[in-house]
Amino acid sequence: MSHEEDEMGEGHSLAAWTGVIIALVGIAIGTVAFFFEIEWVVWAAAGLTLIGFLAGFILSRMGYGVRGAKTLQKEH
């Protein structure tokens, strides 16, 4: 019993990984800076987190998303 399903994917793409890694670095830096009460670093880390989300969106629009033109499709 075989049938094709149109899977949306789980975000395994260059755009998703790049955005998440940049955002996680920003969150980690912000957490440490918040603990040590370094306010300007907390705000800079918040900006870095937003840049991560923006980078993921831009890369997705450039074709590096799940079904982008520049990604390799895996055959199962």
Description:
This protein is mainly α and 76 residues long. It is built from 2 helices and no strands. The chain has helices spanning 14-35, 39-64. Helix 1 packs antiparallel against helix 2. The model has no long low-confidence stretch (mean pLDDT 88).
Order of secondary-structure elements: HH
Helix content: 55-70%
The coarse overall form would be elongated
How much strand content do the residues show? under 5%
Mean pLDDT: 88
* Largest pleated sheet: none
Task: Write down the Rg.
Answer: 17 Å
- Unreliable sequence segments: none
Total E-strand runs: 0
Distance between the termini: 16 Å
Helix and strand composition category? mainly alpha
Q: Oligomeric state of the chains? A: single chain
List keywords for this structure.
single chain; mainly alpha; 76 residues
Short description:
The protein has 76 residues and is an all-alpha fold.
List the helices and strands and how they pair.
Layout: H1 14-35, H2 39-64
